Amino acid sequence: MNAQTETKPSTENLTGLELMRAPFPASAISKLPKPTKAQTEAVRNDFKQGIRCEVCGGWHHPKVVHLDYVGHAALTDRLLSCDPMWNWEPVAFDEKGAPARDANGGLWIRLTVCGVTRLGYGHADGKSGGDAIKELIGDALRNAAMRFGAALDLWHKGDLHAENDPGPNTPEVDEVSALKRAIKDAKKAIATEKTLSSLAALWGSFEKEVQKDATVIAAKDARKAALTPTDPAMQSPDNSDLGGDEIPY
Using CB atoms within 10 A of its CB, is residue 36 exposed (0-12), middle (13-18) or buried (19+)? Predict the structure, then answer.
């Protein structure tokens, strides 16, 4: 048996809800770019700062992190394999009989598979139009299907069943993994800054949740201390306000 055969996910003899938890094959897993705020603004301000990505085919910053995810078609195929009679419905309807969105523009749904119903939530991140509606539904289905264990390993980004792991740890939303990556990237970026002014600019580009992280604050303070001259005579007049008590970060 070769390595490729050993690592190929197997769904043989699995049915119903057990099949929902089976790993998806590599062919069903897509790549979703997740740029930071600074990366998005850099490409928006200068189109040439982006590249045609060989991973996802999109145009974005060259250092963007990609997340693995299962698309709508692959998930629908898995749902049909588990239960040909699966169904979903919105939790609420508006006055016109259409699925009602909440105050944030999101959609709560009930997903029923093999007679079991669980809730899910989807959001199109401020998009509008018909494509946004389809994305809203697809996002809600992926979120609800995760409650059944579908693509759970992709949400977790770790080994859910390691020997020392007391049990599965299911994140509530995919933003948890995105925030962890943003924090990791922030600390790496901080360590490479060469001046106090560039460090201040970098700090201002971080999301508030990243700025609140204790490890990011510690990394910033350490880098700030390393870049601050110990001899007052060595401080540049232009940078004098960056080494004092009035630093806004």
Answer: buried
